[in-house]
Design goal:
The complex is a heterodimer. Chain A is α+β, with helices and mostly antiparallel strands. Helices cover 60% and strands 12% of the residues of chain A. In chain A, helix 7 packs antiparallel against helix 8. In chain B, strands 1-4-5-8 form a four-stranded mixed β-sheet. Chain B has a four-stranded antiparallel β-sheet with strand order 2-3-7-6, with no helix packed on it. In chain B, helix 3 packs parallel to helix 7, helix 4 runs antiparallel to helix 5 and helix 7 runs antiparallel to helix 8. Chain B starts with 6 loop residues before the first helix and ends in a 6-residue tail after the last helix. The chains are: A alpha+beta, B alpha+beta.
């Protein structure tokens, strides 16, 4: 039993925190969000560092590391609210890597690993795929429906740009009539996607908590830092509880993906359910702790709140994830 | 990262599991005294099998179990629905406190009977006017020759009626600021000057007692950790209290949640999305508690102390246990509210969870001040 990162993994985390702290400041996040663009220089740097291929095998141009390392990067990207196609490309990559044939992997993964020809994922509902991140710029769109998945080239799909409440990320609506099926374990690949997404949410929650604590130490009312009042300090403690709980579930999901796939279904459902809940609660709480200023466009808390809201809706919603946890738990009772 | 047990941890688990299978005492008898005697016999059996104090060092008769093995021990006890040993406060609190602060004579005298269950221990910390604010306690000890004369009142003293010894914190210097001036004693409960009065809880049973101490005598040799050092010694006890039980409690929660889930499944209620959502949420909380507890153990083993997650597990457990019992009452309906239902007992007992061993409010203060570094008021 060793529930901690290896030294190398800690090093990846430190490097990512450090780099993104310099390159994805709130000033840059704001500039990109307000101009509805991404920070191209940042994206190029992530590609040059090989992060885009971190969990893709070396054979296909990646770094050959695992879900845990991807989760570490995703958490830090969430912490920085970085605007880039990293998440969509990582999710598309996970689906093709874990549900595609050898031939499909060899054809598509190198472009995803280098960031040259990116992918994305959309879940088809009653009106087509509604909330597809980076649909307008991805080379490949993986559309998931009823447990199956098909890959369409963007040029063959009908993409309409949409605006969500999260201006740090671009979204589109996708309709497509034809595509190439992924014949492998789509459900398992989607579970990996959920864990990666959960990690971004954990990073978002961590940042919102840290900003709130710093503000509560600094902001004085009645000649006292507001963080000395229990109404505020207990709210901050609750933020820690939810963030750490979601982190435990997410790391468990990542470990299961790499080391014990039999537990991945439970781990992914837990990770997504806990992280979606935690990030929305913690970012909402962060607005409250910041008071009036927290409700302004000028303060940076809202980027986190908006990211949390839209991330929570991607792939599986929190309610469906909780129901899956209950089914997975009931199934183990019957078995054993 | 490796969230499986390694070979020696598995061997430990399998050995203990087999031992429990062969020695399980069955269900506890009715009646509080009978149930206590039953747990005392169980501890004797654990002791004879070499399982009473796995987390203690070998030199004191333990197994030198790692933190993970100690967690496994508690998980296995709870999973087998076997009782906790009778002298749980002696094993988890008094023993480790004496190992840290006791003299060689004290260790020789007290540790072995703690393990065998021959001498039961209780904890005399809280007072009517000193609950969360423990350091404001007023029980006083005055030096008289080579003895101390103790007068005061203690409350929430579990198992006092069965105890030979009490871990007593008393004020020995009234001129010092409140955290100083305290001393930690070993009080002999078998004297007229110590009166035990049971405190009946909302469940109708009396796990706790009040202690009325009127000029009780304690020899000098029973001071632990030096005169005036009582606050530090007491903190050792309190840290052990919050760390030790977590794993057993966590599995106890899981066992009850599984029972409720089985019942719901048998009645076809899992098909109801509202029920699935609520049970899913409880399973999620329960699993997160277990995972977070293991993260804390790993951090303690690797870095000597838990990270921020370490201060959260008692809070997570108590909240989740209360939510589970409340939900069981919803799901099972009126039958859960009848006094002969185990769920009605659990519903009432769970209200104590967010109070005992540090109220949730105090735990939040600790998290805010010591983990997040927020200012004190």
């Amino acid at each position: 039993m060793n529930f901690d990162f290896t030294d190398d993994q800690h090093e990846i985390k430190r490097t990512a925190r450090d780099l993104l702290g310099r390159r994805s400041t709130f000033e840059r996040v704001r500039a990109a969000a307000e101009s509805a663009t991404y920070d191209e220089a940042l994206w190029q740097e992530l590609r040059d560092l090989g992060w885009t291929g971190i969990a893709i095998s070396e054979e296909h141009g990646g770094a050959g590391l695992g879900q845990v390392e991807l989760v570490i990067l995703m958490e830090e990207l969430g912490y920085a609210v970085a605007g880039s196609p990293f998440l969509s490309n990582a999710l598309g990559g996970l689906l093709i890597d874990h549900a595609g044939s050898d031939e499909q992997r060899a054809r598509w993964l190198p472009g995803i690993a280098s960031g040259e020809a990116t992918a994305t994922v959309g879940t088809i509902g009653s009106d087509g795929a509604e909330l597809v991140p980076d649909a307008a710029t991805a080379a490949l769109i993986v559309l998931v429906e009823d447990g199956g998945a098909t890959v369409v080239e963007r040029s063959a799909a009908d993409v309409t740009a949409i605006e969500t409440i999260d201006p740090t990320r671009r979204f589109g609506r996708v309709a497509a009539t034809s595509g190439e099926a992924l014949s492998g374990d789509v459900a398992g690949a989607l579970e990996r996607c959920e864990v990666a997404l959960a990690a971004e949410l954990v990073g978002v929650a961590q940042r919102a908590m840290e900003m709130s604590v710093a503000y509560a130490k600094d902001r004085k009312q009645f000649d006292t830092p507001i963080g000395a009042y229990q109404a505020v300090s207990h709210r901050c403690a609750q933020m820690l509880l939810e963030t750490e709980g979601a982190r435990s579930a997410t790391y468990f999901g990542a470990w299961a993906a790499d080391a014990d796939p039999a537990q991945l279904t439970l781990g992914a459902a837990m990770a997504k359910a806990a992280a979606a809940e935690a990030a929305r609660n913690v970012t909402a709480s962060a607005i409250q702790v910041h008071g009036g200023i927290g409700f302004t466009w000028e303060a940076d808390v809202h980027w986190l709140y908006k990211r949390a809201q839209v991330d929570a809706a991607l792939l599986t919603g929190a309610r469906a994830s909780r129901a899956r946890v209950a089914r997975a738990a009931a199934a183990t009772l019957v078995k054993g | 990262m490796d969230l499986t047990f390694n070979a020696s941890e598995l061997a430990f688990r399998d050995e203990f599991r087999a031992w429990i299978d062969a020695n399980h005492p069955g269900d506890a008898p009715d009646g509080e005294d009978e149930a206590y005697g039953f747990r005392r016999d169980w501890q004797r059996k654990l002791y004879e099998g070499g399982w009473a104090a796995v987390h203690w060092p070998k030199e004191y008769g333990g197994r030198d179990a790692t933190l993970v093995e100690a967690a496994i021990f508690n998980e296995e006890l709870a999973r087998a629905r076997a009782p906790f040993p009778a002298n749980v406060l002696g094993l988890l609190l008094a023993g480790p406190t004496l190992m840290t602060w006791g003299t060689d004579e004290q260790k020789d005298r007290y540790l072995s009977p703690i393990m065998s269950g021959e001498e039961i221990w209780c904890q005399g910390f809280s007072e009517p006017e000193a609950g969360s604010d423990l350091a404001s306690l007023k029980t006083k000890a005055v030096k008289d020759g080579d003895e101390w004369v103790v007068t005061g009142q203690k409350v929430w003293t579990s198992g006092a009626q069965y105890s030979k010894w009490c871990m007593l914190v008393a004020r020995t210097d009234f001129d010092q600021p409140k955290h100083k001036g305290l001393t930690y004693f070993i009080l002999d409960m078998e004297q007229e000057a110590v009166q035990v009065r049971p405190l009946v809880q909302i469940t109708g049973e009396a796990e706790f007692n009040e202690l009325f101490i009127e000029e009780a005598r304690i020899p000098d040799a029973n001071v632990v950790g030096g005169v005036g050092n009582g606050w530090k010694v007491a903190l050792t006890t309190l840290m052990n209290e919050r760390a030790g039980l977590a794993f057993g409690l966590q599995v106890g929660l899981k066992v009850k949640l599984d029972q409720l889930t089985e019942t719901a499944a048998a009645r076809g209620l899992l098909e109801d999305p509202v029920v699935a959502d609520r049970l899913g949420d409880l399973h999620l909380r329960c699993e997160i508690l277990r995972l977070t507890a293991y993260r804390g153990l790993t951090a303690t083993m690797k870095y000597g102390q838990p990270g921020p997650e370490g201060s959260l597990t008692k809070w997570m457990w108590s909240d989740t246990n209360q939510q589970l019992m409340q939900y069981a009452a919803d799901l099972l309906g009126p039958e859960a509210l009848l006094t002969d239902s185990p769920w009605s007992y659990e519903l009432l007992r769970s209200r104590g969870n967010t109070i005992e061993g540090g109220t949730t409010e105090i735990l939040k203060n600790i998290v805010a001040e010591r983990v997040l570094g927020l200012p004190r008021r």
